[in-house]
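Can anyone check this?
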Amino acid sequence: MTAELVRGQNHPLSQARLEIRVSAGKPIVAGATLGDEQGKVHGVEWVAHPGAPTLPGIEVSRQAAADHRLAVDLDAVPEAVHRVTVLLALPTGVGGPATFASVAAPFLAVTAPDGTEVANYTITGLDAESAVVALELYRRQGAWKVRAVGQGYAGGLAELFADQGVPQAQQLASGINEAVARGAARSVAAPPPRTADGDRSRQAAAPALGPDQNGSPYATQDQGGSPYTSPDQGGSPYTAPGQGGSPYGAPGQDTPGTPADYPTGASPTDPATSGQAPTPTAGGSIDYSHPRRQNTPPPPPPTAPPTPPGQPARPVAGDATGWTMEERLYNQVWGMFEDLARTTAAYRSAVDFADSRMEKELDQVLSDPRSRIGGQGDAAREAAHAKHAQLVDQAQQVLDRDIAQLTAEAEVVEPALPPAYAGWDNPVWHGYRVPMEMPMALRLGELHLPEAERLRIPMLVRLPLERGLWIDSGRTGSSDGSFTDSHDLRRLAMETAVAHVARLLAAHPAGEFTVHVADPAGSGAQTLVPLVQSGVLAGPPAVGAAGVVDVLARLTQRVDLVQMAVRGGAADSLPPGFDTSQQLLVVNDFPHGFDDRAVTQLRYLADEGPAVGVHLMMVADREDASGYGPLLDPLWRSLLRLTPVADDHLADPWVGHTWTYEPSLVPPGSQVLQHVLNQVAAARRPWNQ
């Protein structure tokens, strides 16, 4: 029976392997400290946080999130540790809430490895605090207990750490906030959460594989619990998130990273009367959606033909929920992304557990002098290695099964993707026509993990873009980039930018997306030829300092005008003939040709532009801009970093894995880019006359 704790109450823990689940409704930081008998934390090496998420027996999340799962193995913590403190804090400098007064009361649940809840605690009464000691796992007379604490700190993490005796508390708090900011900057933004009645998941739309699906979304009928259950242990402490139900959360629960879903009677974008220009609403941003989007109820998703009992479900393209096939495919791709992230997290955690258990058993053998003589020690070591191999083999079998299912799904989904979601080598581009309405999302590349090198997940971002793009033209540190000289990297970066610009132009209806280019030194002239000769740019690329000043002045003035109109609720006061199309500024070779005023304008466009339809794409090497110092750090963090070569720098929004990103480039010798640009240019001509 679950113990519902109140502040100060404790409850015994009957097992050492636990999971602590945290829900707060808004992104928060979760961490843990290890303390001695007096509760003192001896140093920063006794603190688990997003910058250093793993300690012996403790693993916390690598980034801020609304939901966390902390893995705990009390048998694996050092003997000197008598207290494990779970702490929560609000991230600073990333636009989130400043105090817990504006956050739903954080809820924590201590669960067994199989998902059985042992105790829970809702932290109430928080107001001006920005950090809180939530729970405390402590050892008394050889037994462990959990205590509900709920002690808040208005001074944030620095005050909390200082209270626990952590040396250099302020520096540690600053380092954690920096790690969280870096994680937010490199994270692939998840789709918006479901609405109140959006309790459907892509798993619910797929045929059930068995009556007892706990854990992996591809669980078979005989797997009713953790996929890593060992005969003598009863389960791994690191089972896949989502055990005991859908991996996307309980019905009606808004879970970060879930696919888009819409209530009956609504559409993915607000429809407007045919023929009317899009207008902003009071207090909101301009609606750039196409006026002819239809508001029709969604037809049921396709279902796979019946499969024999015990066999994995046959994948079907578009089997997720959604109003249109486009939306279903979008949700399905994100579902595959999440499934691969979580099943890999379960595999890695199971292997880590197997490693730590084997090390502990071997340490016990070596600590007993009697076991070092004769065959007793050898037998114990062989038994430890055998148990380790058994757990790793079980984890590998489940991972292989899930990857095989996802690979089969990818082979069905990839050919069915519309142009905006498809790779440049997809035949769908050969029949491309300029769309009548903007799609939900755009493909910027592919993502994969080392455990599944051949399984590539399309990286889709929502449209309109919520943040600008930074194409890194410097050395990335990847194996692909280490043998490429700086000149080649700059050329590859511009080619990547041109491919992304072509995709953005191809995804929008005629006249609804305008591209400006600032190339002060003219170094990208050769690469920009396809855009210039096809006539899809708003004008010739701006060169020299004067050209940079002119294009920045026009776009910042545009942002100011639209912001004033929106805030004043007077969209009709915009100048006659005002172009309401989305605007994109491509900046090459930054910071050449940019003075302090131009840099300030760039930051302004990056921060304020996306809300009013002005977006930024920078092609730059961050080292070249190091002369500006920390002034540009907010600019880099506000942009999504992409690379022209394969590189490990992006994180998923669920478990924070580091994914290898590969840009979506046009195959060598292909004429598909020119075909697409010609189609876009032909459709734009009537709008430019």
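Reply from J.R.: I decoded it. The two ends are 74 Å apart (CA to CA).
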